[in-house]
Design brief:
Blueprint: H1 2-23, H2 37-51, H3 62-75, H4 79-94, H5 104-125, H6 137-141, H7 174-189, H8 194-205, E1 213-216, E2 221-224, H9 232-241, H10 243-261, H11 264-296, H12 315-321, H13 323-338, H14 344-353, H15 360-373, H16 375-387, E3 399-401, H17 409-413, E4 414-416, H18 427-446, H19 452-463, H20 477-502, H21 505-515, H22 521-535, H23 544-556, H24 565-569, E5 571-575, H25 584-587, E6 588-592, H26 604-634, H27 649-698, H28 702-719, H29 727-761, H30 767-781, H31 792-827, H32 834-843, H33 848-852
Antiparallel strand pairs: 1-2, 3-4, 5-6
Length: 856
Amino acid sequence: MEDEDQQKIADLIKELVLRLLSQNPTSDSQPLNPKSPSFHKHLRYALRILSARLCPSIAPDSAAIAESIKRRLVTKGKSSQALTFSELYTKFASKTGPGSVNNKWAVLHLLDIVSEDRKNAGAQLGSPLLLLPNLSLNDAESGDGDSRVLRRGGSKEKGWNNGVLVVASDSGNFRDIAFREFANFVKEENEVSEEILVREVLYACQGIDGKYVKFDAGSDGYVLSDSIKVPRATRTMVRKLCELGWLFRKVKGYIWDSMDRFPAEDVGTVGQAFCAALQDELSDYYKLLAVLEAQSMNRIPLISESVNSGNYLSLRRLSVWIAEPMVKMRLMAVLVDKCKVLKGGAMAGAIHLHAQHGDPMVQEFMRRLLRRVCSPLFEMVRSWVLEGELEDIFAEFFVVGQPVKAESLWREGYMLHPGMLPSFISQSLAQRILRTGKSINFLRVCCDDRGWADAATEAAAAAGTSTSRGGLGYGKTDALESLVDEAAKRIDEHLLDVMYNRYKFKEHCLAIKRYLLLGQGDFVQYLMDIVGPQLSEPANTISSFQLAGLLETAIRASNAQYDDPDILDRLRVKMMPHGTGDRGWDVFSLEYDARVPLDTVFTESVMAKYLRIFNFLWKLRRVEHALIGAWKTMKPNCITSNSFTKLQQAVKLQLVSTLRRCQVLWDEMNHFVTNLQYYIMFEVLEFSWSNLSNEMEVAKDLDDLLAAHERYLNSIVEKSLLGERSQTLYKSLFVLFDLILRFRSHADRLYEGIHELQARSESSLPSQDKSKSRKQMKDRSSEPGSWFSEGRKALTQRTNEFLRNMGQDLDSISKEYSSLLENFISQLPEQQHVDLKFLLFRLDFTEFYSRQHPSS
């Protein structure tokens, strides 16, 4: 089928040539023989023209050509012909299938050119038969290289009055002549060839000065010498291309300074990784320059030779080649400027900020760079989270360690360095990373435990990572969070298990509550009974060793003896610093020895708070103990009515009145102390302990445990009037305590005098009791100023005077107590803590004080 088409095309070409030669005015008058040698030469020339690669300089658009032809006809006033052409073109364009023309635009273009040529030829030669240029044998075979495109002249007998267009492929073609003239023009205008400029630019891209392009420190860049004669556009292009060399010089200088000039501690491992990543990128850049330099050795062909040219490098081609390296080099130069004064996590975070880019090429480049840069940082994270090792010799990690004592390891040993925290690690994740490594170090140093290693291995297996190096990297944030969460959960759980079971944290908290916060009632009562006489002495005369023995006695005499011996061994007597005039009651205290690792919770500041609470509770218990002692003295069976039958009626009434005032005042004081004691023991201590117990059950890590204990302690301090906002109320309360203790001493004096009077007034006793009474009276009569050394009249007088003085003292104490209590109660509503307002409700439940002093 294809052979038949080829033969058909050949026959059509022969017929076309035959017709053209027969109509050509330059041909002979005799008919031309198709088998003659002359015809075959013309046929070969026509075939050569048809097989040439010449093509029109228009777009292959049939609709555009048809529109152009129609517009030209309308412009010339041939509207009817334009309408006819439009109908014919519509039919021609709609014709498809077998027998249709494929290249419709080419047919239209050919017809348009033929029409214009006929018009031009008719105007020039006056013959409508000239369709194509002269196909004479002499012209076709002419090899004259100097012939021009437009030939003028010719024989008048042949009808050639003007020149015609010669379509040929020899050296006389107009296009070749134009190309040669352009090349000569370029050589005349340029003093330096483009090949040399390309090589000069390649030298500049490597940071090397060439012959014509050199680095100028004044302009801070590579410039082409002004003495070189080149076009302005070429000079501008060279300057733009040499920007790559300036960027390369900046990046290379940073690498050289960081690796050779600056000490390692100023650069750090992250900085070294950054330099290594930049060096790898420059290695790829060097490979590209090698390829470009090889291409620059090829000659740049003329435009007419572009079809058959091989690989070469011009300035424009070079600009295309280095477009992508230019983007990368600019980015690296920006990163170099940004990271000059940074290191470690700060450097990684600064580089990460430039990775947020919309260009996929830039994103991939930054991701590849950050994987190398962040490798040391993620290795530090892995080592810290799984091994508790701080491999940070150049201070680059966002976790900072410092040498501290074992009791301060958790709170002060390790902390976050915000300046070194990269932006791709959140603050919450950094806190979990810090706590995980800190837990491992706490277990290893303070608890002497090695069980964390198994927990770390299980965490790595659960997270799907390896405990070896290289398991983490940039872009694997989910894997990092998974590893940290699994490690934190398992290691914190193991830490709490060690604290609760091995070191019995809960038991020690309960022991402190029972002994330092005086929750063990029988122990406290017995201790106060046996140390009372000792503590009444001046503080500088009391032996701490004797008090330690009394403490041991109190333990053995109470239910405290059944506690864990380790807990009892930690309970000790402490004598606070004292001055002149201080009594033992003022300096006595108990302390609890919290050893490692418990001293992480029970620090010195925490134990100081416990000491403040103990002193307050000890003072409250002392006041309560004093009132109980006064009651024992005042109880009814101590005084019988028969003892005062021989006294005068006035003295008897005065005695009863004094005793009544003393009893009423004791009741008021006892009411106040009892309610305050109830509030402290139940509303403060027990409620806070219940909250602490619940929080210990739900604590997930040691930080939760520390926070729970701190809230527990602060709650007790605030509710017990020991907070900063309750200092005025606290001082008022202690003045009340001192007044109650003074009342106890007055009550003792009163009843000592009454007992003395009772002993003197006894008249009827059994013989044995009488002899005993006489002995006591004899002993007392020897004392100077004793009532028994006086007579009955003097006894009555002394009794009146004594009761009057005691009554006055009691009235004074009663008034002062009422004033102080009113002041104390009036301050309670001003307190911000709601529990202190509840204390007011307990003290004034019947609104007795409110009605008594409505103004307050």
